[in-house]
Every structure is written in C-alpha cells, then in structure tokens.
Write a structure and sequence with these properties.
It is a single chain. This protein is mainly α and about 90 residues long. The protein has a domain at about 65-94. About 60% of the residues lie in helices and about 0% in strands. It contains three helices and no strands. The protein has helices at about 15-30, 40-55, 70-90. The radius of gyration is 21 Å and the shape is elongated. The chain starts with 13 loop residues before the first helix and ends with a helix.
Length: about 90
C-alpha cells in the first residue's frame, strides 16, 4: 500500500497546490498589497480574511456564479423542503 499523498491517489496534493498558488497570486503577492508585508501577524490576519472570502463570498463558476455559502444554503433548503414534502406525502397515504 502506498503512503497518503502518493502521486495518483485521492490524496494527491494538486488541489492544495492550486489553492496555494492562487492564494499567493491574489493575496500574498497580489495587486491589492504592493510592497512587503509588515509582519507575520499582518499576513495571518489578511489570510483569515482571504479564507473567509474564498469560502463565503467569491463567485464560483462551477456552481452557477454564486458564492459557495449561498449555494450550500440553497442546496440544504431545497433538500429540507423535499424531505418535508416526502414525509407529508407518506403520512397522507392510506
């Protein structure tokens, strides 16, 4: 058995490398922050903001150009509604 992270398995780090790459391009060396970071703490706080934006607010093309948080909220709301409808239909059956 190969160790986790072995090339070609489901733990291949290509996704992590992609996210790290655009994190660095957008935040660390991006156009919104010219010049060096003043401290590690400044970069850490900016990273927290970037991660929040990435998970909550960014528009994601694969899911219809909506933010991931909005997509997730809609997804679960629709499933709760479908489940309630199915339960009501079952309860109303003879």
């Amino acid at each position: 058995m190969n160790p986790p992270g072995f090339v070609g398995d489901s733990f291949d780090n290509a996704l992590a490398e992609t996210v790290n790459g655009y994190y660095k391009a957008e935040l660390v060396r991006g156009p919104d922050h010219p010049g060096p970071w003043k401290s590690v703490e400044e970069l850490e706080l900016a990273t927290l903001g970037w991660v929040h934006w990435h998970n909550q607010d960014r528009l994601h093309g694969f899911i219809g150009d909506v933010p991931p948080a909005e997509f997730e909220e809609t997804f679960y709301a629709e499933h709760r509604q479908a489940k309630a409808l199915a339960e009501n239909t079952t309860l109303g059956s003879p």
